[in-house]
Design goal:
The protein has helices spanning 11-33, 47-53, 82-89, 108-119, 159-167, 186-190, 205-213, 241-244; strands spanning 4-8, 36-40, 63-67, 69-71, 98-100, 126-128, 152-156, 180-184, 194-199, 231-236. The chain is an alpha/beta fold. The radius of gyration is 17 Å and the shape is globular. This is 6-phosphogluconolactonase/glucosamine-6-phosphate isomerase/deaminase.
Length: 247
């Protein structure tokens, strides 16, 4: 298992530690290549990491940002929109070289084609990849497709994933959660030069336990990251809770 695990006492410390690791990798990429490319996760688990990241001393005008996923048919004005999330919490606070968003409105196929073209112009230096309560990465719910060569595709969201969105307060009821989303695919995520994963909170404890104790398998999609050569995992006492019981 190729993973460097950092356990923090609380989400704020976790977020600071993860942001420092991301900043180091971005600075190294800029030093080596003149620019850096990053993929960002969204959701409640990323609040502290993104908040700390925008305060880091990074030449943001040399950084290009992509993100992982977006609901199909959801307006950007909806509070659950990941485009809205990133523009408000990240893009508006710094001066990026460029920001490329997943757009689930309009002609989805054309949107995916255009985004894929931008994404594949050069490698991604840092993928900031969260883990869902059902073990998903991006919206690759179990059983995840580990084999597709597509960069992004439309997927159907499972009930556990939808329940997480309701539990985090993005939607009032299960029926309000869109049934489909555009997600970055697993192979594309694994193509990142480095992966940094920030996973706080007790609700993620089972997913963290399964990710670290099970063999790589599509029923726990996050297990695939154990095969990445440069994976850093940041968890807190709450999300590490089930692991502590092993010792």
């Amino acid at each position: 298992m190729n993973v460097n695990i950092n356990i923090a006492p609380d989400p704020k410390t976790l977020g600071h530690n993860a942001a420092e690791a991301i900043a180091i990798l971005l600075r190294e990429a800029i030093k080596d290549h003149g620019t850096a490319r990053i993929i960002l996760s969204t959701g409640a688990s990323q609040f502290e990491t993104i908040s700390a990241l925008v305060e880091m001393d990074i030449p943001w005008d040399k950084v290009e940002m992509f993100h992982l996923d977006e609901y199909v048919g959801l307006s950007e004005s909806h509070k659950a929109s990941f485009r809205k999330y990133l523009k408000e919490r990240f893009v508006s606070k710094i001066s990026l070289k460029a920001a490329h968003f997943v757009n689930g409105e309009g002609d989805v196929s054309k949107n995916i084609e255009a985004l894929t073209k931008e994404l594949r112009k050069s490698p991604i230096d840092v993928g900031v990849i969260g883990i869902g309560e059902n073990g998903h990465i991006a919206f690759n719910d179990p059983p995840a497709d580990f084999d597709t060569e597509q960069a992004y595709k439309v997927v159907n969201l499972d009930e556990r994933c939808k329940l997480q969105q309701v539990g985090e307060g993005w939607f009032p009821t299960l029926s309000d959660v869109p049934s489909q989303a555009i997600t970055m695919c697993v192979k594309q995520i694994m193509a990142c030069r480095h992966i940094v994963t920030a996973v706080p909170h007790q609700v993620k404890a089972k997913a963290i336990f399964d990710t670290l104790t099970q063999s790589v398998n599509p029923n726990v999609p996050a297990t695939i990251m154990k095969g990445h050569p440069c994976w850093q995992l940041f968890i807190d006492d709450a999300s590490a809770g089930m692991l502590f019981k092993l010792y």
